[in-house]
Write a structure and sequence with these properties.
It is built from 12 helices and 10 strands. It is α/β, with parallel strands linked by helices. The strands form 3 sheets. It has a 6-stranded parallel β-sheet, with helices on both faces. It starts with a helix and ends with a helix.
Length: 296
């Protein structure tokens, strides 16, 4: 906010990362300051729960969106949610990844080796991963293993560890905590199916990264995920918190290795459209448009 008031040179474009939690109020305040200084601003939408924020604070959101020079969403999900409520067109520019950092690897499917990469927070439902692991063991897949990578945000890691002990699967679980990108990518080589258990999401970068690495992804069908890839071809979507549906998808992948390998290839091909070189040009085109419209 200080930079918006004092440090942004005349002619700047203010790009505001916009989330759905209390951070939304910081975004709104930065937008007011940019408007006061006569600087065009662009909300870049990230919060998977933004529709609920728009319902809760319609006046603030209308003021925020309708005074923007442009609005950017990484998927059609938030584009549709904004445009059906406000007279504010939204441009889709996907999240980006640098494909050179993600070496493609065809997976082997002789056993179930699950990878989960996310912050330990209740909105990402990490305990569901433990319940999936337990039910796989109960269904006869005793060698199924799970690795969970990510920082603890709200104490959910302790709850996950307690549940794993309660269900007797702690021996098949590895929790690494936060890893560098290079470290978790190296770790991922030992696993063959990526699972995403979130309750809310927009366009999760961890899922995009897994697809770039060649993982068949099994994810809950929430928020913007249905806009991210073709269900059944580039990945698999299951209902929110539906353990049995996720298990069926995982077992289906293990029992059809050719289908799973092809899904990994298609996922990698999909990731080509998220490469930074492609996405950067979309941003440049948008900035050029705003420079022209605002005589910057």
């Amino acid at each position: 906010m200080w930079r918006t008031i004092w440090n942004a040179p005349k002619g700047s474009i203010v790009l505001i990362d916009t989330y759905s939690s209390n951070a939304f109020h910081f975004a709104w305040t930065c937008a007011r300051m940019a408007k006061w200084r006569g600087l065009p601003y662009i909300p870049s939408l990230h919060g998977g729960n933004l529709p609920q924020r728009m319902e809760k604070n319609p006046g603030l959101c209308r003021n925020f969106f309708e005074n923007a020079a442009s609005i950017v969403s990484p998927s059609g999900y938030l584009k549709a949610e904004v445009e059906q409520r406000f007279s504010s067109p939204v441009t889709i520019i996907p999240n980006n990844i640098d494909l050179e950092q993600y070496p493609f690897q065809e997976k082997k499917f002789s056993s179930i080796r699950l990878l989960w990469v996310r912050s330990f927070h209740q909105i990402y439902n990490p305990q569901m991963a433990i319940r999936v692991l337990h039910e796989l063991h109960e269904a006869g897949y005793a060698n199924a293993a799970l690795c969970m990578i990510g920082p603890d945000k709200d104490g959910s890691r302790a709850a996950v560890e307690a549940l794993s002990r309660q269900l007797g699967v702690e021996h098949a679980l590895e929790i690494t905590g936060r890893l560098t990108k290079a470290a978790w990518i190296e770790k991922s080589k030992d696993y063959n199916i990526f699972i995403n258990t979130t309750h809310f999401d927009n366009t999760p970068v961890s899922v995009m990264e897994a697809m770039a690495l060649g993982f068949p992804v099994v994810t809950t069908k929430v928020g913007g995920i249905p806009y991210l890839f073709a269900d059944g071809e580039e990945g698999i979507m299951t209902p929110d918190d539906d353990v049995q549906a996720m298990i069926e998808a995982i077992v289906g992948l293990i029992n059809a290795p050719s289908y799973s390998t092809e899904m990994g290839r298609k996922a990698r091909n999909k990731a080509q459209s998220w490469n930074w070189g492609v996405v950067a040009q979309k941003w440049k085109d948008l900035f050029d448009q705003i420079v022209t419209e605002h005589n910057l």
